[in-house]
């Protein structure tokens, strides 16, 4: 018997479902007992030559079998319900812990490994929660009852069965520590391979262009072999446990049968008791066999538990979801913020920031003011801290010093709409992607797309707004992605718009269109644009140059 | 999906077992021995009890030795059987994983771009699921059939009616493999579909974290995954209920066999009818019941195995489909080597279309002389990236040829070249180039020949990647901490470190600040070899010897000054 505390705790959060599936399981077990009694009765009736008893016993056997059918269906339903609720809770918590700003700048966070944990890892706990936990409860409720019955019939048989049960339960404990260690090894290599495979499939075009397919194949093969060896090791230990349980079960049954033999030979009792001892001794181990079977089905899933703990799946939920305060229903938030839909000035004062572990500040004592009415542009070298400044404005990073104020109050994340340098689109239709931050009307969507210069492109697509966007928008060109993201930002109706390199992937004509759009948008809201294209700076009144973390000059 | 196509899906997976026939045989032998030991154990025990009750005689010493030996043998055999069959399955799965990688290497990027999260889910999830098929199917079915036949013959010898009841019961049990099979398969498919959709959603949410946070979408995404999990649970519940129903039907049949065996034994023992001849000693009754149960249990086990395959059919089908993805380039039958010396590029009447779109290129021709630096101009979406991808042989054109041209004008179609030779001669830097996790050195050396650190450091210095990064620095997945300009410099360094003869560049200067763009343009201008650079930036194009306008009627070039 293996106790995984975290999962027991999770199951215990749903006491009714847990109690129901356990109670039904025990009832199913009692139908097996009733059947054993009926068979013993039938066999002794044959021996004693009582035809009426034979028929009555056979009818009883059939009746209990039918009752068991119904009970086992109800039990299955209850058990899957329990497993599903636990999975839901785990995934909710792990997702909430994964979708936080800290993950943005965490080089150790790999999408493939996270996906494996949040998807397969959570699903892997199901067999343990829905099958194994009720089976453990069954062992503790049902086995003592059968052993007690056996003790009444024949103390020797009862003791043999009890010894076998105890051995089957405690024997595997010796393996527990080794299991835990090997399980961790296994999950590590599974995660490593999962992450590698995802990365390489994503970068397959690059791999092929580099001619590195054979090299990567070799590396993956090494990983895959490592996974195979690790899986084999986990399996071997787990199977040794199965063998120990089997030994205890068979040994216990044979010993109890020997006791039954003694019972029969000493001739104290009618034969029904002897048959009953034989059958009950076998039934006493049914819960143990169930346990062993469910363990085998669930043990690989358990190797994900340490990984899930790291993802925060077992950490109780925060009082509020990460983005609760402003966006109760996320869709309504931008409209709810309509009174603040217009703001005059965004003021940054004495802002400093340093990445943990980095030797130098990325930004040092930076101050700037961006106003509504005209475009503000920030230019600077690659790596000068422009993207970091955006992440600070958005609140994804916490400054080590300084303040960011919007019209005299601290800026909130929902004041700001953003178009990233590499905008990411979701799988779903183009419409889904545009309406992420609200429920705009058809006219608003069309207007925003026209303003962002993407409307013609959408109309040329086979299904227009209902065209599916593949993962990360890779079936659209870089320029189309950027203009879609701009349309999405316009539809968010927020007082501040941050635009990172809006024209980087556009040809001169389209770039000019987008800049015109931004100038128009800047009449109604504060627009800050990172750029270094001289032509996009034409007509921008307010150009700030960021150099090595400091604002060098502010040129008209 | 009907039973025939389900069988086809599984048959496609069988070739992976062929190299394992020895293991299969061993698995069958050990499994049969283990199951027979268990059957013998229960029958011998029941036999001894029956005789003790009726004849009041204890079993002899031989019985004790036999039973004790069987208990130990059964323990060892159980462990052995599982060990052999699982090790075999894991070997097959490892082989399948690599076969899938090979299939993707031939077929990605597809002309219709697909979801890499789904691809990864197929590769990992579906293959792991097939463990059951490989570990618990073929040899185990054989072992079950052997056990059934052995017990059937023994029971028939003892009491032919009992044998008949067993045979009838087993036949009914076997038919349960087909009950609700279609529904079970459909539920299995839907469950898998829900899982991959969920996986897709998670990959997207993690990839788009900045937008998710900016628009406060976390709670909406969490709520959506919550709903998806609930939906998946509902399907799981229905699938499990169906499986439980079939199991219950089977148990009812087993019970009926027990009832039948007791009834025919009672009749044979002369209990039910007065004055009939007793053909069977009541002492044998427990042994006969044990035998019948062991025999029908073997059939039940085999049938359960078959039933558990239903939900796997979807996985089997997807893995089979993944192994048979259509390749995007053909492998030349007799790969040609490339001569030394400078190489140019020639496009002859090249046509290309992405799936279900209008053709991007139609009978398009152009030529870049060896050593020439050519620019490729044209509006967004006109096919500049497609031309570069065809030159890098990520795809083959639907018509026409792309050739590397030597100084004396001899053409070598890229589709006929040895891949290593092609990749050694042509390097690609594009807007979506991936930097892989690992050190800078690992990335620079990927796919190339080993180079001393001094060479690599020189390449880094050439692209201006000094000061902010070193060869031993870890990049993290896709260079998370690097800016666009830094990534572009490293991708260019990676291309240069291979010392290519033809350098293909697609829009890399697009998102760079003027200083970086200047630096990168300088490095490309100094590159001693052929260059084809797709760009819409006049500054970048201005540095080329010649500009090819992709929209112009074939063959008409523009001078840089025209722009």
Automatic annotation (TrEMBL), chain A:
InterPro entries: AAA+_ATPase (IPR003593), ABC1_TM_dom (IPR011527), ABC1_TM_sf (IPR036640), ABC_transporter-like_ATP-bd (IPR003439), ABC_transporter-like_CS (IPR017871), P-loop_NTPase (IPR027417), Type_1_exporter (IPR039421). The keyword Transmembrane applies. The chain crosses the membrane at residues 55-83, 156-175. Gene3D superfamilies: ABC transporter type 1, transmembrane domain, P-loop containing nucleotide triphosphate hydrolases. Residues 319-339 are annotated as: Disordered. One of its GO terms (molecular function) is ATP hydrolysis activity. SUPFAM superfamilies: ABC transporter transmembrane region, P-loop containing nucleoside triphosphate hydrolases. It is found in: Cell membrane. Keywords: ATP-binding, Membrane, Nucleotide-binding, Transmembrane, Transmembrane helix. It is a multi-pass membrane protein. GO terms for cellular component: plasma membrane. Residues 19-297 form the ABC transmembrane type-1 domain. Its main location: membrane. Pfam families: ABC_membrane, ABC_tran. It comes from the Bacteria. Residues 346-556 form the ABC transporter domain. The keyword Disulfide bond does not apply. This is ATP-binding cassette domain-containing protein. The lineage of its organism: Bacteria, Bacillati, Actinomycetota, Actinomycetes, Streptosporangiales.
Automatic annotation (TrEMBL), chain B:
It comes from Streptomonospora mangrovi. Keywords: ATP-binding, Membrane, Nucleotide-binding, Transmembrane, Transmembrane helix. Residues 345-563 form the ABC transporter domain. It comes from the Bacteria. It is a multi-pass membrane protein. Coiled coil: none annotated. The keyword Transmembrane applies. SUPFAM superfamilies: ABC transporter transmembrane region, P-loop containing nucleoside triphosphate hydrolases. GO terms for molecular function: ABC-type transporter activity; ATP binding; ATP hydrolysis activity; ATPase-coupled lipid transmembrane transporter activity. Residues 29-273 form the ABC transmembrane type-1 domain. PANTHER family: ATP-BINDING CASSETTE SUB-FAMILY B, ATP-BINDING CASSETTE SUB-FAMILY B MEMBER 6. It is found in: Cell membrane. One of its GO terms (cellular component) is plasma membrane. The chain crosses the membrane at residues 28-49, 61-79, 133-158, 164-181, 248-271. This is ABC transporter ATP-binding protein/permease. Its main location: membrane. InterPro entries: AAA+_ATPase (IPR003593), ABC1_TM_dom (IPR011527), ABC1_TM_sf (IPR036640), ABC_transporter-like_ATP-bd (IPR003439), ABC_transporter-like_CS (IPR017871), P-loop_NTPase (IPR027417), Type_1_exporter (IPR039421).
């Amino acid at each position: 018997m293996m106790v995984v505390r975290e999962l027991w705790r999770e199951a215990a959060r749903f006491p009714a479902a847990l109690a129901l599936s356990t109670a039904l399981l025990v009832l199913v077990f009692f139908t097996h007992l009733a059947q054993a009694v009926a068979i013993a009765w039938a066999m002794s009736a044959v021996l004693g030559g009582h035809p009426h008893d034979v028929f009555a016993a056979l009818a009883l056997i059939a009746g209990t079998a039918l009752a068991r059918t119904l009970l086992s269906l109800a039990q299955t339903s209850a058990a899957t319900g329990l497993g599903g609720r636990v999975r839901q809770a785990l995934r909710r918590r792990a997702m909430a812990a994964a979708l936080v700003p800290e993950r943005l700048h965490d080089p150790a966070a790999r999408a493939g490994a996270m996906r494996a944990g949040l998807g397969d890892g959570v699903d892997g706990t199901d067999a343990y929660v829905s099958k194994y936990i009720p089976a453990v409860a069954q062992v503790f409720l049902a086995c003592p009852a059968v052993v007690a019955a056996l003790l009444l019939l024949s103390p020797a048989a009862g003791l043999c069965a009890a010894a076998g049960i105890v051995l089957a339960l405690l024997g595997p404990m010796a393996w527990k520590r080794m299991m835990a260690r090997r399980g961790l090894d296994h999950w590590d290599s599974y995660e490593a391979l999962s992450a590698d495979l995802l990365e390489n499939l994503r970068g397959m075009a690059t791999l092929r262009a580099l001619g590195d397919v054979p090299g990567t194949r070799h590396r993956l093969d090494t990983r895959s072999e490592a996974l195979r060896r690790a899986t084999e090791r986990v399996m071997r230990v787990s199977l040794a446990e199965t063998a120990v349980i089997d030994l205890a079960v068979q040994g216990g049954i044979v010993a109890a049968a020997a006791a039954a033999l003694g019972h029969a030979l000493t001739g104290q009792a009618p034969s029904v008791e002897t048959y009953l001892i034989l059958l009950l001794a076998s039934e006493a181990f049914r819960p143990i066999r169930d346990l062993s079977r469910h363990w085998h089905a669930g043990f690989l899933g358990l190797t994900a538990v340490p990984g899930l703990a790291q993802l925060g799946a077992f950490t109780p939920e925060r009082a509020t979801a990460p983005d609760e305060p402003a966006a109760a229903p996320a869709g309504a938030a931008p409209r709810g913020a309509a009174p603040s839909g217009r703001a005059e000035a965004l003021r940054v004062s004495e802002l400093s920031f340093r990445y943990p572990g980095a030797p130098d500040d990325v930004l040092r004592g930076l101050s700037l003011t961006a106003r509504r009415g005209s475009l503000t542009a920030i230019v600077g070298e690659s790596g000068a801290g422009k993207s970091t400044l955006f992440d600070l404005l958005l609140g994804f990073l916490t400054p080590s010093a300084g303040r960011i104020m919007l019209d005299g109050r601290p800026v909130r994340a929902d004041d700001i709409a953003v178009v990233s340098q590499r905008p990411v689109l979701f799988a779903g239709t183009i419409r889904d992607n545009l309406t992420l931050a609200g429920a705009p009307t058809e006219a608003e969507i069309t207007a925003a797309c026209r303003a962002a210069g993407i409307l013609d492109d959408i109309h040329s697509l086979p299904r227009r707004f209902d065209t599916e966007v593949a993962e990360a928008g890779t079936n659209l060109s870089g320029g189309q992605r950027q203009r879609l993201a701009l349309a999405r930002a316009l539809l968010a109706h927020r007082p501040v718009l941050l635009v990172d390199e809006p024209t980087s992937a556009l040809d001169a004509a389209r770039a000019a269109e987008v800049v015109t759009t931004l100038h128009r948008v800047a009449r109604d809201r504060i627009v800050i644009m990172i750029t270094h294209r001289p032509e996009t700076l034409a007509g921008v009144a307010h150009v700030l140059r960021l150099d090595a973390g400091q604002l060098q000059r502010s040129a008209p | 999906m009907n039973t025939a196509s389900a069988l086809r899906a599984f048959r496609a997976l069988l070739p992976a077992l062929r190299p394992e026939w020895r293991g299969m045989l061993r698995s069958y032998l050990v499994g049969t021995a283990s199951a027979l030991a268990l059957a013998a154990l229960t029958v011998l025990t029941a036999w001894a009890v029956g005789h003790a009750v009726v004849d009041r005689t204890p079993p002899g010493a031989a019985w004790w030795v036999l039973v004790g030996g069987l208990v130990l043998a059964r323990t060892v055999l159980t462990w052995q059987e599982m060990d052999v069959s699982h090790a075999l399955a894991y070997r097959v799965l490892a082989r399948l994983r690599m076969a899938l990688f090979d299939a993707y290497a031939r077929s990605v990027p597809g002309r219709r771009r697909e979801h890499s999260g789904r691809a990864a889910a197929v590769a990992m999830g579906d293959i792991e699921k097939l463990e059951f098929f490989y570990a618990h199917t073929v040899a185990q079915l054989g072992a079950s059939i052997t056990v059934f036949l052995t017990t059937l013959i023994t029971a028939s010898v003892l009491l032919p009616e009992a044998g008949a009841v067993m045979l009838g019961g087993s036949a009914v049990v076997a038919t349960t493999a087909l009950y609700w099979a279609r529904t079970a398969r459909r539920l299995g498919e839907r469950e898998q579909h829900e899982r991959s959709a969920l996986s897709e959603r998670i990959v997207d949410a993690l990839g788009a974290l900045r937008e998710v946070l900016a628009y406060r979408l976390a709670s909406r995404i969490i709520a959506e995954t919550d709903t998806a999990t609930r939906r998946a649970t509902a399907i799981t519940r229905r699938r499990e209920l169906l499986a439980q129903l079939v199991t219950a039907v089977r148990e009812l049949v087993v019970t009926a066999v027990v009832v039948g065996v007791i009834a025919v034994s009672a009749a044979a023992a002369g209990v039910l009818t007065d004055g009939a001849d007793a053909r069977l000693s009541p002492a044998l009754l427990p042994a006969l019941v044990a035998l019948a149960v062991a025999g029908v249990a073997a059939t039940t086990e085999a049938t359960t195995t078959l039933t558990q395959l239903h939900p796997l059919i979807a996985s089997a089908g997807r893995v089979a489909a993944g192994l048979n993805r259509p390749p995007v380039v053909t492998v030349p039958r007799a790969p040609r080597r490339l001569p030394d010396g400078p190489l140019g590029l020639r496009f002859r009447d090249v046509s290309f279309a992405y799936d279900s779109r209008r053709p991007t290129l139609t009978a398009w021709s152009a030529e870049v002389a060896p050593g020439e630096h050519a620019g490729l101009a044209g509006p967004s979406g006109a096919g500049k990236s497609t031309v570069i991808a065809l030159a890098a042989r990520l795809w083959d054109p639907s018509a026409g040829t792309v050739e590397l041209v030597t100084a004396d004008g001899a053409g070598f179609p890229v589709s006929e070249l040895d891949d290593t030779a092609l990749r050694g001669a042509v390097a690609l830097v594009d807007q979506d180039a991936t930097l892989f996790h690992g050190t800078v050195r690992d990335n620079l050396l990927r796919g190339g020949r080993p180079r001393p650190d001094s060479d690599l450091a020189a390449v880094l210095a050439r692209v201006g990647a000094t000061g902010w990064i070193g060869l031993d620095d870890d990049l993290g997945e896709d260079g998370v901490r690097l800016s666009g300009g830094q990534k572009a410099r490293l991708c260019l360094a990676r291309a240069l470190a291979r010392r290519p003869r033809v350098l293909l560049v697609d829009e890399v200067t697009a998102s760079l600040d003027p200083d970086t763009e200047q630096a990168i343009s300088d490095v490309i201008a100094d590159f001693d070899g052929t260059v084809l650079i797709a760009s819409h930036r006049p500054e970048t194009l201005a540095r080329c010897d010649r500009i090819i306008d992709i929209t112009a009627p074939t063959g008409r070039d523009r001078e840089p000054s025209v722009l």
